[in-house]
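To make this tangible, this section ends with a sequence with its C-alpha cells:
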Amino acid sequence: MSDNLEQVLEAAFAEATRRYQSRGFQRRVGFGKRPALISVDLANAWTRPGNPFTCEHVDDQIIPSMQALLKGFRKYNLPVVHVTTCYEITDRDNQNTDMGLWHNKIPIDVVSQGNPDIWAIDSRIAPIEGELTLIKKRASAFHGTYLAGYLRAAGVDTILVTGVTASACVRETICDGLADGFRTIAVKEAIGDRVPGAVLWNLFDIDAKFGDVETTETCLKYLDRIGQEQEVPEKAVA
C-alpha cells in the first residue's frame, strides 16, 4: 500500500514539477550565514508509541537524523531551539482554556502541562545547557511566541526545521519562518507524520513554495562550511 502510494505520488510530482517550473515556482531560498536548528514537537507525545499523536519512522529515521544535526550544531555552538506543545487548562468545557478552539478538531487536551513527561523532549535528543526549550500553543512555533525575536537577537538568518508533523506544525513553522524573513530549510529525513504520503506530499509542496528541502547530509556539510568560516585565523608569528 505504502509503496504503491509513493509511486503514485512520485508520478504526480513529476507532472507537477513540469507545471510549476514553467510558471516560475521551485526557486531556491538558499542557505544563509548563520543558521539555527528549530526542532518541532519531537516530544514524547509524538515520538513514543501509544499516544494519539504518535508518528511514523521516528526510531529508524527522525531520531538518527536529529542526533547527527545536534552534533553538528553543538560542535559549532550554533543556536538550537527545541519546541514542544502543552496546555494548562485542558477542560474542554472551560471557555477560558489556552487550547483555543483547536481541541474541537484534535485531542490536544491529552498534552497537559500537569503531565510533563508527555510533552518533554524525547530523551534521545534532549536539550543540553545553552539550548532553548520553547512551549507553543498553536501549530506554528512562531505564532504567539518570542521565537522570531530570539532568533534575530542571535543574528540568525537561516532556520533548519525538523520534527512533526509535516502536514501541520512543521509546515506552519516553515511558512511563518519565511514570512518573518528567515531562509527556511526543511531537513528531509528529520521530518515525519502519522499517515502514509503526508511527508512526501508536504515536502514536495513546501519545496515548491515556502522553503528548500535538503538532505541531512547536505545540511551537515553546510554546518561544516559555516564552522570553518567562523574560525578566527591564527595571527602570524612576528
Summary: The chain is about 40% helix and 15% strand. Residues 2-22 form the longest helix (21 residues). The longest strand covers residues 183-192.
